């Protein structure tokens, strides 16, 4: 269950969104679907290293996994484009100052050449903003608070 938190790098832990039991279950279900597909399966040791913020060589299918997760939680549409409304809602609920939400949506919600590149861009962009923001501290606490579930 701990690896589920890592997929939250771009989704919940970084945004520090408090999850209801229902949301945790959905996240777990999405992660399970992505892990059960050989194309998007990532070894659990990768998630463990990411969770610990250790340096890790990401496997070649990491972008496909990110895309699977982002689609599963609704941040990326089936056509591979960013769901800006869902992104806006997620960022708004994360504690980011309202005045910064649109700026982050515009930067992080840019579609890239491929859906996989879009998913990675979204993840990196959200991480960047979390580091520059107070959200990172909350995300770090949030991440550890659920690491034992």
UniProtKB/TrEMBL annotation:
Domain of life: Eukaryota
Lineage: Eukaryota, Metazoa, Ecdysozoa, Arthropoda, Hexapoda
Keyword annotations: Signal
Signal peptide: 1-16
Gene3D superfamilies, A to Z: Pheromone/general odorant binding protein domain
Gene it is expressed from: OBP13
InterPro entries linked: PBP/GOBP, PBP_GOBP_sf
CDD domains registered for this protein in UniProt: PBP_GOBP (cd23992)
Pfam families in the record: PBP_GOBP
Protein name, as recorded: Odorant binding protein
GO molecular function per UniProt: odorant binding
């Amino acid at each position: 269950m701990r690896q589920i938190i890592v997929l939250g790098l771009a989704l919940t832990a970084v945004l520090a969104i408090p999850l209801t039991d229902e949301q945790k279950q959905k996240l777990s279900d999405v992660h399970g679907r992505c892990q059960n597909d050989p194309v998007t399966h990532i070894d659990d040791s990768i998630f463990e290293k990411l969770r610990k913020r250790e340096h890790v060589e990401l496997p070649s299918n990491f972008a496909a996994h990110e895309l699977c997760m982002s689609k599963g939680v609704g941040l990326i549409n089936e056509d591979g484009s960013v769901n800006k409304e869902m992104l806006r809602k997620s960022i708004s609920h994360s504690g980011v100052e309202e005045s910064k939400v649109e700026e982050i949506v515009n930067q992080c919600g840019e579609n890239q050449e491929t859906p996989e590149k879009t998913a990675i861009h979204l993840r990196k962009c959200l991480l960047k903003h979390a580091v520059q923001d107070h959200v990172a501290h909350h995300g770090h606490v949030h991440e550890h608070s659920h690491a034992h579930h």
